[in-house]
Design goal:
This protein is 40% helix and 18% strand. It is α/β, with parallel strands linked by helices. It has two domains: 3-157 and 298-361, Rossmann fold (3-Layer(aba) Sandwich), CATH 3.40.50; 160-288 and 374-398, Response regulator (Rossmann fold, 3-Layer(aba) Sandwich). The chain has a seven-stranded mixed β-sheet, sandwiched between helices. α9 (245-255) runs parallel beside α10 and α13 (318-337) crosses α14 (342-351).
Length: 401
């Protein structure tokens, strides 16, 4: 378990200190108020910082830390500075439980941002309930995350179900796709992606799912799967998995000489996806968790974007934006609750309207976001650039319905 603390002070972590100089996530623990550092509100972060899918977590963590710094630069919250205590679960639910226990019991965080993996998010819910510590999940797109009925978990992104519903709808209207194949991984997130694909097809007249399969994340040889999918003659293939699965599959499809339309979601893949594919990425369409050009159209997003570009000399990528918004939700809840008490924070999130970087958000009784925009993007310049197609894929595909 690797750790960093930053924001209102710093404690050096194990190997990650150099890479995660910008890591900062709000974690508010309802227990042991007296053990908290005076003048500092600690927020816990659990995300993927090592392993094959670490790029998602590293980007998310960078965005989370920048938001902590951004909030602190504007006066902090409740007259105090925010401090991020960040842990690495390496995409492993057992490590996520260990991380949550330490964040709650030793670091005395008031809330947790994360995890990124939905299964990890489910694994820590009993600890949250015992300590009354709310969590605002990062990407965590599986329906199962909020299907447990826990009152202590909230999303900061819409579900994979909605992403793939949107992707089907968009490709059917814009690319005139009628038949679809789905190839995804065989865990909860893959199941939600498939469910969204099926929902989109059921609600888009004239479309049909002609092939579907779910495989282990460690799959390296997709030749048989590609042959079977190609035999079904789909107009578009949807990829419901993170790296390295997604990149290897997409590359092998192109290496096989199959120029079918490909669709994926930025909820799963990051810049390493485009770099891995190179020219094979060109034209691949994705839904995404955010896009800087869409931020520029919102007042809060525009000011954050200006600060980010000044600091980094480039616009933020989607996962950096998602990490920042998760922290923003917690900061807004602290302000609304006027307290670091866990129950009051939970009630504040449940009842507030969050004017975020990407959208105005409200939550339903399960902790799911109510209707929020989903951007559509396309890869270009040999996998080095993501261009915005639409700041709300449903508005484009369904005329605003």
């Amino acid at each position: 378990m690797r750790r960093t603390q930053s924001g209102g002070g710093r404690r050096s972590g194990r190997a990650i200190a150099v890479l995660l100089v910008a890591l900062g996530t709000l974690a508010l623990a309802a227990s042991a108020t007296g053990a908290r550092q005076a003048g500092v509100i600690k927020i816990g972060s659990i995300t993927i910082l090592t392993g094959p899918t670490a790029q998602i977590g590293l980007e998310t963590a960078r965005g989370a830390q920048f938001m902590v710094d951004y909030v602190n630069a504007h006066g902090g919250v409740l007259g105090q500075k925010l401090q991020l205590v960040s842990d690495d679960d390496a995409n492993n639910p057992q490590l996520a439980v260990q991380d949550a226990a330490q964040l709650i019991q030793q670091d005395h965080v008031v809330a947790i941002a994360g995890p990124t993996n939905s299964v990890s998010g489910i694994a820590i819910q009993s600890l949250q309930a015992q300590a009354k510590v709310p969590a605002v999940a990062y990407q965590s797109g599986a329906e199962a995350l909020t299907g447990t009925g826990s009152p202590w978990v909230f999303r900061s992104n819409t579900t994979l179900n909605h992403h793939f519903d949107a992707l089907v709808t968009y490709l059917a209207k814009v690319k005139h796709a009628k038949t679809f194949a789905f190839i995804g991984w065989n865990l909860a997130a893959g199941a939600s992606s498939l469910a969204g694909t099926q929902y989109g097809i059921a609600h888009t007249p004239g479309t049909k799912l002609v092939y579907q399969t779910q495989l282990p994340l460690t799959t390296q040889d997709f030749s048989a799967t590609i042959q079977q999918a190609k035999a079904a003659n789909p107009d578009a293939v949807l990829i419901g998995a993170p790296m390295p699965f997604a990149g290897v599959l997409a590359k092998q499809i192109r290496q096989a000489g199959w120029n079918v339309t490909l669709g994926a979601t930025g909820d799963f893949v990051t810049g390493d996806f485009g770099l891995f594919l190179g020219s094979a990425a060109n034209g691949l369409i994705m839904t995404d968790t955010g896009h800087w050009q869409c931020l520029a159209k919102r007042k809060n997003g525009k000011s954050f974007l200006a600060a980010w570009q000044k600091a980094f000399g480039r616009p933020p990528v989607a996962n950096e934006i998602a990490g920042a918004d998760a922290i923003g939700v917690i900061a807004a809840a602290l302000t609304k609750a006027k307290s670091t008490d866990g129950q009051k924070l939970d009630d504040a999130i449940r009842g507030m309207s969050y004017n975020g970087l990407r959208f105005a958000a409200q939550w339903d009784s399960k902790g799911n976001l109510r209707r929020t925009p989903i951007p559509a993007v396309v890869w270009a310049k040999d996998g080095t650039q993501l261009n915005d197609l639409s700041c709300d894929i449903f508005t484009t595909a369904r005329g605003g319905k």
